[in-house]
Amino acid sequence: MTIPLERRLAVLRSRLQVNWITVAFLAVLLAFVDGFWLTATQGAIGAIERRQSPVTRWSRDSILMLPLFVLAVLAGLLLARHWFAASRLRFVRVGATVLLITLMTSIVGIAEVAASSAYDYRLQTRHLEAGGASHHLSALPVLAGTDVQAGVQPCVGVCAERQLTLSAHVRGVALASKLLLLTNLVLASWVLTLLTDRVWRQQPTSSSRRGEPSNASVLEAAVS
Amino acid sequence: MDTTPNSKILIPRRALLKMGAAGTAAIAVGKAGSIVVPELRRQGLLSPSGFFDATSVVLANSIYDEKFPTSPLILSPFQDELNILKALAPVPDSEYKNWASPPGPGYGQQNSLGNDRHQRWRGYGNDPDPVVYRVKVEVNAHSFTTSQVLPINSSGQPTKSFDSTRKVYAAGTVRTLPPSTIYGFNGTFPGPMINAEYGKPALVRFDNHLDENPLNLDRQDFGSPDWTFLTHLHNAHTASESDGNPHYSMKYGPQHHGYLPQLWVDNLYLNWPAGNDDTEKQTFFWFHDHSMDHTGSNVYKGLVGLYPIYDPKNGLDMGDERQGYRLPGVRTDNPDGSFDVKYDIPLAIFDCRLDDGVTNHLDMHDGMGEYPDAGNPRKHPEWWGKTFYKHFPNHGFVGDIFTVNGTAYPVLEVKRRKYRLRFLDCSVSRIYEFKLMSSTQGPKSAVSLGYTGSEMQGQYRIPDGQQCMQFLQIATDGGLIPTPITRDSFELWPAKRREFIVDFTRYQDGTPTTKGDVIYLTNVMKMSDGRMWGNSSRFSPDPKYMVPVLKIVIGDDAPDDSLIPTKLRDLPPVPANWKSLMDNRLIFEVERGSAGGEVEWLINGRQFDPTQVATSLKNKAGNTPLAQQKMGSFNLWEIRNGGGGWVHPFHLHMEEHRTMMRNGKVQPPAGNGHPDDISKEDVVALDPGESTIVYRGFRDFVGPYVAHCHNLVHEDHAMMFGWEITP
Question: Which end of chain B is more exposed for a tag (fewer CB within 10 A), N or C?
Fold first, then answer.
C-alpha cells in the first residue's frame, strides 16, 4: 500500500517543526567555529600551498560546510525529540539535546579536518619527493655505514619524512577533534541555555488544536 | 500583580539562566581579549590573519612535543678567565711554497679536486700576493668550564647523573663536566682569529681532517654525517668560489654539500671593499661552516672563527689608537707576521645545552639514517654533560648556558681605560640584548631564586642589577658608522656584529670607577625558544630577567691614547632616485612550510634548490624576475617575514645592504628609525610580520651566491635561496 505524497509531506513537515532561525543560528555558529579550528590546524600542519589568506579560506570553507552543519544540528534536535521528549527530567532533555547536537556537528567537523589533513598530506608528500633529490633525503650517509639486512629496506630519507609528516597529521587531527568537541559542547550548551524556549516551535497539530498537548509541546513546556 | 513597595521582584529562573549565560560569555570574551590582544600585538599578529597564525602556533606547539635537557648547574661561575684570542700566525712563504700543491692563480689550484680557479688573484691596484694561512678542520675536545656542576632537572631539583660508562651518580652528587666533542678550526672553539688588513689579501687553506679522531672521541649525533665542511667568511666581499656557499658548492668545486675529509680548498679573501670604495670597508667578519643542511650542527659543534679587519689607509683604523680615528687599541706586530691589538677584544657569544642523560634523542636526522652508531631514538647517559643538539626542533634551538669565546660565564679583568669590544652572536637561534650592569649582591642561581623550566635559562641572575654604564656604538655588520651612537642596550641577532667603545674609567653618572669594581655584561632578552623573544626592552621588558654573561673586574690604570670619536666613516652614497627601482624590485617572502623536517622553511613558497636561481614574487611592475643581477649593478630587494610568530635574521651574502624602507616607511638616517637601519648590514633583522626594502650592489665578482635565514635551524631546513651575479 502506498502512502500518498501529500501525507508523506505532512508527516515530514510535522517532524520538522523546528525553529529554523535557531537551527540556522546554531549551524552558522558551529560551522564557523569548526572552520576556525580547521583553518588553524591547516596553519599548524597543512601544506604551504593552502596556508595563504586564512581569513578568506576560513570564510569560504565555513560557508561551503554550512549545509552539512544545518543537517547535523537538525539531526541532533530530531533525535533528541525522538528519544527524550517523553522524559520528565528537564536536565536529561536539555542535556541530551546538547550532547546530540555536539556529537552530530563534531562528526561533521572532524570529518572535515581529517579530509583536509589527508589532502595536505598528499600535497606534502609530493613536495617531499620533489625535495628529496637536492637535499639529503634520499641518500644514506657516505661514511657512517649502515648494516642493512638483505631484503629489508630501511625507512630512511623521504620514507622517514613521510612517516613523520603522517604522524604530525594524526596528532593534529586528534588535537583538533578534542578542541572541536569541547567548543561545540560549550557553544551548544550556551545557545540552548539562551534560546531554550525556541528550540522547538509549538506544533500546530490537530491534537493541540483540540487542546491536547502534543509530544513536542510537552517538551517545549518542560524545557521552558 | 502585587505592586506594593515591599514586594519582592521576581525574576523568572529561565531569564536568570539566560542572563547568566550571556554575562559569562561577555566576561569570558572580555577577559580573553585583555590577555590575548597584548600578546598578539607583541608577536606582530594583531590582525585577522594574525589571530589564525597565533592559534596555529599554539596548535603546532602541542602537536610537535619536544623535550630538551636541563644543563647541570655551574656551581662556580665567573671564575674562568675570558679567552682573549691571539692572532693566527701566517704560514711563512718558504713553507707554503714547498707544499705539494701551493696556492696559486692557475686553473686547478683553488682546491684539491683540481677543478676550479680563483676569479681574481689580486684586488685593485698593486696588492701584494696573499698572506697564507692554514686552518685544519679537526675533531677535538672542548670544556666550557672548569667549575664543578650540580646536575638538576627542569624543576631545579638535584637529579642523577652519569659517566661515559653509564654509571649512575645519585642526585645531589657534585660532578666535573666531561669535555664535549667539537669540530673546530684548528681544533679549537672558537677557532683561530685572523687579524686582517685592507689591501693585504689573505688566503686560507682549509684542510679537512675530520676523518681523523686521534683522541677516539664519541662524535655523538650531530655535525655533518659525512664530515664535510664548507667555510663562509661572513660577510666579506669575496668571489663565489671562495665564498663557501652551497649554491656554488653543489654546482662547482666539490659538487657536494661541502668538502669531504682529506680535501682542501683555498679561500682567497682579497680584503678589499666593494667597488674599491673606502666607504664600503668593514671591520669585523667571522668565518663559519656553511655545509648544506648541516650548517647549524657544524657551527654548534664548533666551526667558528674570527676575522677582524683593520684599515691601515692613512692609519685610520689600523689598531693604533694614536692614529686615524683614535679608536682604542694598542698594536703589537709579531715576528711571525701576525699582529695583535690590545684593548680591542672580540666577544663571540654562544649558547649551548648539555645532555642530562635522561632526555630521549629523537631527531628527523635519525630517521634519515645519518647517525646509525647513536642508535636513536634512545637516551644517552654516556653523553651526560656533553653538548646536546637537536637538528630540527619545531621551535628552533636555544641553549641554557651562555658562553663568551668558548667559556661559560667567564671573567675579564680590564684596565681603567677605554676598550673596543667587538660583539658577535654565533649562536644557532638565540638573540641577546645586552646591558652593562652592576650588582651589590652579585649573581644568584636562577634555581635559588625559585625559577624553574625555561626561566632557568642562563642559570644565573643579578636580582638587584642596575644599569651602570652605556655603550658607544661605533660599528655594525657593515663597519664603522658615520657618527657614534650612545646606547643603554643593544640587540645582537644571530650572525650580527656590533662594536662599541666602553670607557671603564667612569660610570654613566660620571662617578669614577675604582680598582676591584665589578660590572656584568648582562642579557636582558628572554628567549625561551627559537621563535622569538618573550621579553626585551622593545617589547614588554621583564625587569627580573637580568642574566650575567661576563663579569668585568676593573683593574689598574693604564695609559689611554684613544679618543671618543665624533665622526667616523661616511656611508656609501645611495642615488637620490632610488625609488625609481621600487616597481621592479625583487621580492622574497620567508615563511614556514609544513612538510616534514628537511624542507620545513621556505622562501616564496619554495625550498632551497641549489641548482636553481630563485624567482621573485610578482612585483608592482607585474614581473617575477629571476634573482640574477648584472655585475656592477644595484637594485632593491624586498625581504618579507611571512608571519607565524617567528623572527628571522635574514642574511644576504656578498655586498652589504642599506635598509631603505621598513614596513612601508622610508627609514630616516642617523638612528631615528629602527636601531638596525643606521648603517650597512648583512643581516636583516625581521620582526614578526615585518618587511624591509634594501638597496644593494653587485660588484667585482660573478657567480652563484645565496641568501638565507641565519637562524641556522631554518637555514638547514631549506630557508635559503640561490641567486647569482652574471657578467
Answer: N
Tell me A48's DSSP state: G
- How many Cβ pairs within 8 Å bridge chains A and B? 159
Question: Which residues in chain B touch residue A140, judged by CB atoms under 8 angstroms apart?
Answer: 369
**Measured between CA atoms, how close is A211 to chain B, in angstroms?**
25
Grid coordinates representing B160 are: 642523577
In this prediction, residues B385-405 reach a mean pLDDT of 89
Dihedrals phi, psi of B411, to nearest 5 degrees: -125, 140
pLDDT at position A206 over 70: no
The shortest CB-CB distance from A39 to any of B52, B260, B368 is to B52
Candidates B233, B188, B162; CA nearest to B477 is B233
**A114, three cell numbers:** 581529517
Collect all residues of chain A within an 8 Å Cβ-Cβ radius of residue B49: 53-55
Task: Indicate the DSSP class of residue B620.
Answer: T
- Length of chain B in residues, anyone? 727
DSSP output for B86-153: PBPPPPPHHHHTTSSS---SSTT-SBTTS----S-SS-STTPPPPEEEEEEEEEEEE-S-SSEEE-B-
Could you read off the pLDDT of B423-473 as tens digits, one per residue? 999 999 999 999 999 999 999 999 999 999 989 999 999 999 999 999 999
Chain B residue whose CA is closest to A158: B368
Cell of residue B190, nine digits: 672558537
Is B14 part of the contact surface with chain A (CB cutoff 8 Å)? yes
Q: Do B718 and A162 touch (CB under 8 A)?
A: no
For an interface test with A, give the residue of B18, B24, B29, B52 to mutate (most A CBs within 10 A): B52
Closest partner residue to B49 (CB to CB) among A55, A156, A160 is A55
pTM (global) more than 0.80? yes
Kindly state whether B372 is in contact with chain A, defined as any CB-CB distance less than 8 angstroms: yes
Burial class (CB in 10 A: 0-12, 13-18, 19+), B539: middle
What one-letter code names the amino acid at A187? Answer: L
Residues B274/B237, Cβ–Cβ less than 8 Å: yes
Please answer yes or no on whether A131 and B598 come within 8 Å at the CB atom.
yes
State residue B635 phi and psi, 5-degree precision: -160, 170
Average pLDDT, integer, range B506-534: 94
Give the highest mean pLDDT range of B268-277, B366-375, B662-671.
B268-277
Q: Per the omega criterion (within 30 degrees of 0), is the bond before A154 cis?
A: no
Instruction: Give the span between the Cα atoms of A50 and A14, in whole angstroms.
Output: 44
Each residue of B570-605: b (16+ CB within 10 Å) or e? ebbeeeeebeebeeebbbbbbbbbbbbbbbbbbbbe
CA distance B673 to B573: 19
Distance from CA of A46 to the nearest CA of B (A): 6
A46 contact residues in B (CB cutoff 8 A): 594
User: Among B113-117, B138-142, B199-203, B369-373, which is the least confidently predicted range?
Assistant: B369-373
DSSP A43: H
Cβ B458 vs Cβ B534: under 8 Å: no
Give me B8's grid cell: 519582592
pLDDT tens digits, one per residue of A20-62 = 888 999 999 999 999 999 999 988 887 766 666 788 889 999 9
CA distance B602 to chain A (A): 9
Cis ω for the linkage preceding B235 (within 30 of 0): yes
Chain B residues with beta carbon closer than 8 angstroms to that of A117: none
B-chain residues near A55 (CB < 8 A): 48-49, 52
**C-alpha atoms less than 13 angstroms from C-alpha of B96 in its C-beta half-sphere:** 19
Question: Cis omega (within 30 of 0) on the bond before B625?
Answer: no
d(CA A97, CA A18): 13
pLDDT (0 to 100) of residue A220: 45
Beta-carbon separation of A55 and B22 below 8 A: no
* C-alpha cell read off for B330: 694598542
